[in-house]
Amino acid sequence: MNEDKRIEYKSELTNKLKREIVSFLNTKGGTIFLGIDDQTRKPLEVSDEQKHQWEEKINRWYTNAFYPTPFSLIDIYPNEDIFTIKVKAGRHKPYAIASEGFTPKGVYIRYGSSAVRATNEQIKRMLQQNIGNDEFDSEMSPNQDLSFRSLQGRANYKDVEFNVKALHMLKESDIYNNAAFLVSDQNPTITKVAIYQGLNVMEFRDKREISGSLTHQIDELLHYIQLNNHTKIKIDGAPQRHETKDYPDTAIREAIVNAFAHRDYLLHSNIKIEIFDNRMEILSPGGIPDGLTLDEVKDGMTAVRNPQLVHILDKLKYIENYGTGIRRMYEAYQDTNQSPDFEVRPNSFKVILPNVNYNNDTKNVIDSKVKDSTFILGLNEESVLYILSKNGRQTRKEIQQVLRTTPYHVRKLLSGLIKKGKVRKVGSSVNTQYEKR
Fold first, then answer.
1. Is 202 helix (H, G, I), strand (E, B) or coil?
2. What is the edge-to-edge ordering of all strands in the sheet holding 231-235?
3. CA-CA distance, 24 to 27, in Å (whole number)?
4. Phi-psi label, residue 203: left if phi above 0, alpha if psi -120 to 50, beta otherwise
5. When you count CB atoms within 10 A of the terminal residue's CB, does the N or C end of the chain come out lower?
6. pTM for this model (two decimals)
7. b/e code 78-93 from CB counts within 10 Å (16+ = b)
8. What's the first-to-final CA gap in the chain, in angstroms?
9. Rounded CA gap, 169 and 136, in Å?
10. With left for phi above 0 and alpha for psi between -120 and 50, is residue 391 left, alpha or beta?
11. Cβ count near 285 (within 10 Å)
C-alpha cells in the first residue's frame, strides 16, 4: 500500500517520527510501519535488539514527548513481521510535541501523506471543537459491524422500544458510537468473578469470566451472585420463619450496575468481583471523575463519565434513581449492624459489601427436632438434606422454590445425594418425590 492520510512508512526511528504521531492524533488516527524502505516499500532487516530499543524509546515518548499525554492512544506491536505503531484519533485536540516542562512546541496535522504544521486558524478550530468535547462513549466505535440481540431481548422484556437513535447509540446519523459498541454482542470487554474459601484469595471455590453485551454481563453477573447469595433461616417457633440473605439485593444491584455505568473504559483492565466468606468486593477501573470527593458523591453529587451509556442503562431500567446509588447501598444495610465501605484510588473504585450473616460461631443445624436453630441455606447438598429433614418428602420443584435456583442445579444436587445413598427417589414421572434416607 502507498502512503496516505492513514499510513506512514519509516526506515528508521528518529525524532521526526513525533510529527507523524502528533499529526495522526490531531486527525483521524493512522498506522506507522517502521523498518520499511521509503522508496521500494520493502521491509528492511531489523534485529530483535533494534526493535527492543525502538519500543523503549517510543514508550519514553509516550510519557514525556507529547502534550497533552495521549493516554491509551498509542499502541506498539514490536513482534509483528514489521514493527507497527497504531495511533488513535485523540479526544483532547490539539496535541503537540512537548519541549521541556511539557510546553507545547509544535502542532501537526495530517495533510495527504504528510505531517504538516497546523496554522493558527486550524489550531483555533481544534480548540473550539474541543469545548464540550465528547466523552469516550460518545466517540465513533472502532467496529461498525454490530448486532444487538441481547440488548433487543432486554428491551422486549422491559417493554421498551428498541431505537438506536433514542438510546443515544449514534455518533452521526449512520455511525455507531462507543456506547453502542459496549452494549453490542461484539463488546470486547469481560468481567471476572471469583468465590473464595475463607477470608483471603488462597483457595478458590469457583471462578469464571463473563463476556458479551454489557447488559448481558450485568444480567449474568446478578444471576450468578444470587445463586451464591445464601439465605440464613432462623427457626424460633414463630409462625413465620426469619430469612436473611448474606447480601441485600438492592446493595448488590446498585454496586454492580454502578461498576459498569461509571468505569473508565480507556483503562485496559476489567471489572472484578470477589466473594469471600465475610464480604464481597466489587472493583471498577477508574476513580471518581471531575475531581469530586467520595463524601460529595455520597451526598448525591453526580460525576458522569459515560453519559450515553448511562442513558442506555436508564432507558432499559437498570438504573432507577440516578445519583442515589451509594445512598441506596447504605439504606439496604440500615436494619443491620453493618454498612458498606468504599475505597477510592486514582484509577479504581472499590465497593466492599459485608456479609451480614457471617459469624465464626454459627453452626449449621440439620436436626429437625431442634425448635430454635439457625441454618445457612445455600446451593449445596447440606441445604437439600435440611429441607427434606424439615419438610419430609419434596418434589424437585418444591426444593427449587425454597433454594430459589434453577432446575439444573437442583437435579445436580439430588443426583449427587442419591449416588451417596443419602436421598431416596420415590415415585416416577410427574409424581416423583425425594426423601432423606
1. coil
2. 242-245, 231-235, 373-377
3. 5
4. beta
5. N
6. 0.59
7. beeeebbbebbbbbeb
8. 76
9. 12
10. alpha
11. 20
CA angle at 336 for the pair 333 and 338, rounded to the nearest 5°: 75
Q: Across residues 271-290, what is the average pLDDT?
A: 90
Q: How confident is the model at residue 131 (pLDDT cuts 50, 70, 90)?
A: low
Q: Using CA atoms, how far apart are residues 221 and 270, in angstroms rounded to an integer?
A: 14
Name the residue type at position 410: V
The cell for 236 is 424460633
Using the Cα atoms of residue 386, residue 390, residue 395 and residue 398 in order, give the sign of their dihedral.
negative
Other C-beta atoms lying within 10 Å of the C-beta of residue 356 = 19
The residue behind cell 530499543 is: 53
- What is the grid cell recorded at 245? 440473605
Contact indicator for 436, 420 with CB cutoff of 8 Å: no
What grid cell was written down for 110? 495530517
**Residue corresponding to grid cell 448511562:** 310
Report residue 182 as a C-alpha cell. 459496549
